[in-house]
Amino acid sequence: MPNNEEEFETLYKRYYDRVVAYIASIGVLREDARELAQETFIRVYRSMEQGQYRHEAEWAFLQKTARNLTFNHFRDKSAKKREGNLAPASDEELGNVAAGTPSPERSAVLHETLQRALAAIDKLSENDRECMHWHLAGHKYREIAQVLKISDATVKSRIHEARKRLKEQGIELPWPNNQSGTPSTDD
Amino acid sequence: MAEQPEWDTLYRRLIAERRAQSGEPPTADEVEALFAGDLSEDEAARVRARLVDYPELVRVMTQQPPPEDVRILTDDERREDWAAIQKRIAPPIPIRTKPRYLPYAAAAAVALAALSAVYVASRSSTAPSKPPLVARHVERRALRPDAILRGGESAPAVALAAADEYVLQLLTSNEVHDDSYRVEIVDMEANRVIWTRPGLRGGPSGSFEISVSGAVLRPGGRYQIVLYKASQRVATYTVRV
User: Which of residues 78-97 of B touch A (CB under 8 A)?
Assistant: First the structure.
């Protein structure tokens, strides 16, 4: 298969760094990103062997392959955590390791406040409630907008409105600051 | 007012709790269909409800690629990764099934075997063993039984990377002392047994090790590995490749 091999090598030289950078930019550790990028190129090679490779859309093909592998990488990690009972972490497990870990007494107070906030969020309008749930889970406005198929400005406005209503009920929290990028989930 | 780091910890814990309760997140195909607007309103709502606590999965789908000329690897790293890929895609050594000149071939084979034996004997005492010419990717995994994980719910499949060979350690909570165990692998799509291994003896920690060819567990397949003692089913292990 000399043609495939030549094309494959050209593809590697042209796109390998970009694939690694793409996977790493999603939040995968650099070494894991290199492994996933290798797997991406092996899949592409196999597709070439089987005549399923789309020569006319080489980056689109690479990106989709890399994206699906990365998706499954995260999905499998979360499954392992659930299966291994690694989540949820208890206060004892977290101990004083994390800088932001409150003491058990403090944690109980914060937990109660959060439960009040969640109960108040449940009473918001459906649109505002959904935006707040995505916001609390750590999504960026742009991501929420894409999932809910609304504009970034609408997301921002709904979250602003929701916070305002909660504040009127005396619930004012340091809400997640998701817009400058959340910590890597690939830990 | 509480400090932000304390709240961030609390939010993470909340998400972890919700993940543990909600089970498996949606698949890549489901999320892709959601973003493409290919789902009905009800289906989209169901996928969103299972996706909300997985920001990293949403990020995978929404992250824009870097520019084409981005360079983040050193030349050495690039060479190293190319070599790793080449190892994995190397074609297998062809096997001749019908030798045309049997007497000559047989004589040559005997001579070669004798030479090889002398060579191996002379090397084995002094040189460390070398890797095989064609690298085989071996996937080694320890698997927990489905029932222990899910308490009767449908078992989540453990994902195995595509490999030439799988060395799987089947964990059990039983103590095993005899060799009356056997393992069957069921192709869940075809719903039929595709591999079996009788006379298995468990290890001291109650686990069984099986070695399965990549020709049996194929990429894209979903399989159930069933451990039996005599005719009694002891445990199942669901995997996908």
Answer: 78, 81-82, 84-85, 88-89
Can you give the pTM of this predicted structure? Answer: 0.60
CA dist B45 and B26 (Å) reads 12
H or E stretch covering B28: helix B28-36
Total Cβ atoms within 10 A of residue B1: 7
Given a contact cutoff of 8 angstroms between Cβ atoms, the answer to whether A160 and A154 are in contact is no
Contact A185 B78 (CB under 8 A): no
Instruction: Name beta bridge partners: B233.
Output: B228
Check if the beta carbon of residue A53 is closer than 8 Å to that of residue A61: yes
- With CA atoms as reference, report the closest residue to B170 among B214, B216, B209: B209
Helix axes A152-168, A126-136, angle to 10 degrees: 100
- Once rounded to an integer, what is the mean pLDDT over residues B162-191? 78
B60 and A67 within 8 Å at the Cβ level: the answer is: yes
Dump pLDDT digits (tens) for B214-236. 888 988 888 889 887 776 777 88
B35 vs A: CB within 8 A: yes
* pLDDT tens-place string over residues A41-94: 999 999 888 888 877 789 999 999 999 999 999 998 888 776 664 444 444 333
Most confident region among A82-86, B39-43, B97-101 by mean pLDDT: B39-43
Cross-chain Cβ contact B11/A38 below 8 Å = no
Taking CB atoms and an 8 Å cutoff, what residues of chain B touch A18?
65-68, 70
Indicate yes or no: CB of B78 within 8 angstroms of CB of A16.
Answer: yes
Q: Is the ipTM of this complex over 0.85?
A: no
Q: B140 - beta bridge partners?
A: B167
Task: Kindly give, in sequence order, each residue whose CB lies less than 8 Å from that of residue B216, ignoring residues fewer than 6 positions away.
Answer: B185, B194, B195
Closest approach of B167 to chain A, Cα-based (Å): 19
